[in-house]
Sequence to fold (178 residues):
Amino acid sequence: LGGDAPFEAKRFACQQLAVIGTQSSVPALGALLKGDGTAGLACLALVNNPSPEADRVLAEAAASLGGAARLQAIGALGVRRHAPSVPALSRLALEPDSQVAGAAITALGRIGDDPAVRTLKQLCALPDAKRADIARVALLHAADQWIKDGNRPPALALYNELVQPTLSPGFFERSDAQ
Fold:
């Protein structure tokens, strides 16, 4: 993965590490995270890596890197449903950079635990309509995840909470004549 290996060789190695990667591959993948051209490859491998070290490397990348590498690391934390990163992602959701904020909000929806949902609900109340819209979509993803996890009652409550404010009074009270 390091040195002068061609891009295609790195891509092949990362595809294999996405399936068989272990903690021993994390340092080399962490080095790949630092390049915009290879960050996506590293995230592909790190997303499925069972090592807690992968979480740490991704969280550090989300906090310290810029550009596409940062966005991909943020997304990977969401895919991994890394709950300990919720406080950092909550701060990133308020970043002036709309791409970083959007990636963080989306990641919070994928994580979908109670602290992430609380943050998303707060973001829905912001005057920034674009950020609030992204947060509402992220809440739908969180509710979807709750359904998959078998937490149907809170998911249904969240769906209702999201849908009810948008319906006009009498929406379901149409007569047959209309």
User: Anything to note?
Assistant: The chain has a mean pLDDT of 91. Residues 83 and 111 are 6 Å apart (CA to CA). The two ends are 65 Å apart (CA to CA).
